[in-house]
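Page 37, continued from 36.
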């Protein structure tokens, strides 16, 4: 997944805000990346563009060399289903449904070659919620709800999990559990993870740290692989 000369400008009341300015960056399959930087530096914007929740003003987001700007909305929807899972600071789950129903929800309108309920149960097992299938969302703690959100984001086995401040509403210990969960899924399932966070301690757990400032990438470092 790649950003090629990507800029994003928000226009309003005669003022233009450059949320992103001429970004070039490549994310490799299977990487665990943290995007850090101060509030307003463009972290959420770049994640939205990578997840095709929004379009660039200029430049292109490409996937295996193919520019997403040129996709029809139908093709984009299929692209997202195949490749992208998204989680947010506010979990964006359906409070009147059970954990299992929430995890199954992305599959409701899709034809898939597997049993939807079994797949959703497997995902809940993988985030440690094997005893919560039938709990209503409102009966779960914040950390448990975020784990449901992770299970839902990955139930269709996308290649990438994009997470925007997934620990922002959680206490430190719970935030660490969420990060460990993301780590485990990255290692076991091989899905790439890109996490936006302003918590630099959590960011240190990633393999690669991309730091943003004023809509630009000011640092991009990879951890040395263990010998
Ligand atoms: P971060 O996630 O690092 O806090 P954002 O990507 O949310 O930063 O925002 C980058 C800049 O773009 C900020 O100046 C923000 O105010 C502006 N911005 C983001 N989204 C919008 C929007 N929908 N309309 C107008 N300005 C926006
Ligand atoms: P985050 O906490 O993930 O950084 P933000 O507070 O930056 O989120 O943005 C939350 C939402 O508000 C996003 O959809 C973003 O596009 C929008 N937004 C951010 N800044 C502005 C702004 N200056 N004007 C209008 N919308 C904005």
């Amino acid at each position: 997944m790649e950003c090629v000369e990507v800029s994003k400008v928000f226009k309003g009341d005669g003022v233009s805000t450059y949320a992103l300015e001429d970004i070039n960056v490549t994310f490799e399959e299977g990487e665990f990346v943290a995007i850090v930087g101060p509030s307003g530096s463009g972290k959420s914007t770049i994640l939205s563009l990578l997840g095709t929740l929004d379009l660039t003003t200029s430049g292109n987001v490409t996937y295996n060399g193919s520019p997403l700007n040129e996709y029809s909305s139908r093709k984009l929807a299929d692209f997202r289903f195949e490749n992208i899972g998204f989680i947010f600071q506010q979990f964006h789950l359906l409070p009147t449904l059970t954990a299992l129903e929430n995890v199954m929800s992305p599959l409701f309108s899709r034809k898939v070659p597997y049993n939807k309920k079994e797949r959703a149960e497997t995902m809940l097992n993988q985030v440690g919620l094997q005893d919560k299938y039938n709990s209503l969302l409102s009966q779960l703690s914040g950390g448990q709800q975020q784990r449901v959100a992770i299970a839902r984001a990955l139930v269709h086995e996308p290649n990438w999990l994009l997470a925007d401040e997934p620990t922002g509403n959680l206490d430190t210990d719970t935030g660490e559990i969420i990060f460990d969960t993301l780590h485990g899924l990255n290692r076991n399932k091989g899905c790439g993870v890109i996490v936006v966070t302003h918590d630099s301690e959590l960011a240190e757990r990633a393999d690669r740290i991309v730091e943003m400032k004023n809509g630009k990438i000011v640092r991009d470092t990879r951890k040395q692989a263990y010998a």
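The helical segments are 43-50, 73-83, 99-104, 116-126, 142-154, 172-189, 200-203. Flag for discussion at group meeting. The chain has a mean pLDDT of 93.
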